[in-house]
């Protein structure tokens, strides 16, 4: 509930504080006294755009502050989503500088207008004359029937299930598109893979073949050099190994004469052993190297095939070609796996659809069960508020499954018992829509935790018994909800739990708007003036007293 509204420097309001009751609050006053200004200021903390022209004093900023008592579950999701600190009281403040810059705060934390709009919709339902956008929305009409059907938990479960189903369909669609694109490439990829598989390269094969080709290409040169080296090491007239052996023997004769000679002799011995091993290795390599024309032809053919693949795939070595082969295999296997995944998702989505369809049928039956009682109650209330010939009818048409079932719900209206029903948005006037909204909200109030309800002259165009019945409905509605109503009707003002009087007063050569909470006697006088003018008669005062005490 809105328990306090503070307005500073707005229009013709200098400084104003209003404390509201938790039930039916009625605001009255002369035309032009500033009742609409109050709502204009309130709309700023509900997220309306600011206009610097509304500043009372152009040298000061305008501040509007609304203080709300809330139930945690009413706004908890909003506060968690927007990472705001949750408190027992929610204080919304809007500031407008003289330069036109606007700022908004929730519990002293800055927020943007989008956030402010979202929060305010949870706290206040502002219904102004001719403001029928909510009633015209199909979503609101469905919510009304669902509230009366009392199947919110089942509906929420269905909506969650539908969201999961929608995600399944999206995943399925993405996979089908992926398969379609993959199929376009799969034939070419298979051709590329077959080429690679046909050549069947082994790890490092190109590099190994190139090395072998080098050996065969230079076989004669290699054998000649190796033979010469071997000959000089072991078979020359004075082979190197024989000379080393002789040098070692010469050093051995000096061992007894110098302490460093043994070390030198040992090193010569090591060199001799190493060269002997080298000679054996040279001989082995020489025996291995044999020019093979047939093998050379095989190598050339194998390398030519490999080089074609390197060029075709813009690769540089065997490892890159093998990686390309593996990637192509994975891609083709992925196409096959897509079919399996698509089949599994199709089965899942079909099962989810069947479950949704079953629940949607139940929701539809429950909604249809509420239409006749709803129509009867609304029509009775319409007669009560001065529209005896008006009728409402609920049209429920089956449509494809959506997030709230399989129903398209629309309220149809006939103002004159003509049986020519048409959509509310097309056939109902502003005054009819206002009273129709009041009737509907009074019905669903027991089923839905409505926020603070604010009505701006909803009773325009009615009087007498109809105005009295509007007051009765308002009073009943206010038993469980805070209601704030601006009215010119004494019958409605008499039902108030708190009656506020808006008036203008000249101060320092400026007209300022003030609001005063009336006492019981002041209420009687104010209502009597609404009945009989500025100088109410004794009969008007008595009539007013009856209205207040009823």
UniProtKB/TrEMBL annotation:
Family, per entry: Belongs to the RecN family.
Provide the function of this protein: May be involved in recombinational repair of damaged DNA.
Keyword Nucleotide-binding attributed: yes
Q: Which residues form a coiled coil?
A: 116-185, 265-316
**GO molecular-function terms, A-Z:** ATP binding
- What are the alphabetically sorted keywords of the record? ATP-binding, Coiled coil, DNA damage, DNA repair, Nucleotide-binding
The Gene Ontology CC terms held by the record are: bacterial nucleoid
Q: What Pfam families would the database entry show?
A: SMC_N (PF02463)
From the Swiss-Prot or TrEMBL record, give the protein name. DNA repair protein RecN
Give every RecF/RecN/SMC N-terminal domain span: 2-505
Tell me the GO BP annotations in alphabetical order: DNA recombination; DNA repair; SOS response
Whose protein is this, by species?
Answer: Chitinophaga barathri
Q: Which domain of life is it from?
A: Bacteria
């Amino acid at each position: 509930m809105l328990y306090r509204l503070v307005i500073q420097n707005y229009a013709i309001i200098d400084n104003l504080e209003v404390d509201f009751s938790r039930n039916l609050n009625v605001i009255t006053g002369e035309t032009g006294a500033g009742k609409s200004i109050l709502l204009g200021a309130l709309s700023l903390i509900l997220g309306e755009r600011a206009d610097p022209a509304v500043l009372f004093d152009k040298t000061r900023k305008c501040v509007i502050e609304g203080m709300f008592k809330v139930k945690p579950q009413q706004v908890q999701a909003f506060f968690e989503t927007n990472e705001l600190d949750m408190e027992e009281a929610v204080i919304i403040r809007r500031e407008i500088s003289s330069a036109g810059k606007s700022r908004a705060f929730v519990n002293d934390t800055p927020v943007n207008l989008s956030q402010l709009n979202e929060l305010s919709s949870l706290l206040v339902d502002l219904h102004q004359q001719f403001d029928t956008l909510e009633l015209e929305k199909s979503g609101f009409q469905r919510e009304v029937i669902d509230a009366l059907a009392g199947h919110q938990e089942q509906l929420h479960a269905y909506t969650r299930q539908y969201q999961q189903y929608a995600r399944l369909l999206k995943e399925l669609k993405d996979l089908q598109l992926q398969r379609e694109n993959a199929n376009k490439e799969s034939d070419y990829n298979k051709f590329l893979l077959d080429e690679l598989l046909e050549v069947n390269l082994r790890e490092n094969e190109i590099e190994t073949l190139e090395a072998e080709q080098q050996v065969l290409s230079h076989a004669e040169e290699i054998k000649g050099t190796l033979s010469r080296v071997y000959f000089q090491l072991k078979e020359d007239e004075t082979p190197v190994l024989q000379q080393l052996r002789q040098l070692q023997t010469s050093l051995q004769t000096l061992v007894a004469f110098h302490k460093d000679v043994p070390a030198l002799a040992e090193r010569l011995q090591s060199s001799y052993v190493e060269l002997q091993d080298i000679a054996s290795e040279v001989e082995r390599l020489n025996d291995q190297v044999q020019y093979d024309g047939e093998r050379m032809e095989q190598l050339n053919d194998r390398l030519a095939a490999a080089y074609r693949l390197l060029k075709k795939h813009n690769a540089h070595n065997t490892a890159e070609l093998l990686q390309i082969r593996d990637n192509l295999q994975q891609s083709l296997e992925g196409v096959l796996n897509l079919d399996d995944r698509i089949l599994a998702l199709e089965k899942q989505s079909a099962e989810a659809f069947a479950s949704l369809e079953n629940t949607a049928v139940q929701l539809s039956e429950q909604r249809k069960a509420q239409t006749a009682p709803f129509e009867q109650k609304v029509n009775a209330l319409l007669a009560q508020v001065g529209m005896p010939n008006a009728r409402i009818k609920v049209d429920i048409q089956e449509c494809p499954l959506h997030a709230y079932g399989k129903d398209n719900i629309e309220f149809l209206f006939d103002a004159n018992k003509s049986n020519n029903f048409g959509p509310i948005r097309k056939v109902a006037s502003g005054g009819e829509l206002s009273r129709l909204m009041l009737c509907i909200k009074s019905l669903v109030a027991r089923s839905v935790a409505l926020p603070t309800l604010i009505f701006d002259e909803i009773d325009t165009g009615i009087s007498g018994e109809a105005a009295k019945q509007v007051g009765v409905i308002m009073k009943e509605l206010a038993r469980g909800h805070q209601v704030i109503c601006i009215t010119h009707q004494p019958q409605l003002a008499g039902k108030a739990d708190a009656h506020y009087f808006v008036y203008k007063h000249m101060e320092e050569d400026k007209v300022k708007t003030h609001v005063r909470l009336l006492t019981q006697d002041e209420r009687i006088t104010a209502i009597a003036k609404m009945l009989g003018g500025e100088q109410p008669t004794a009969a008007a005062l008595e009539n007013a007293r009856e209205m207040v005490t009823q």
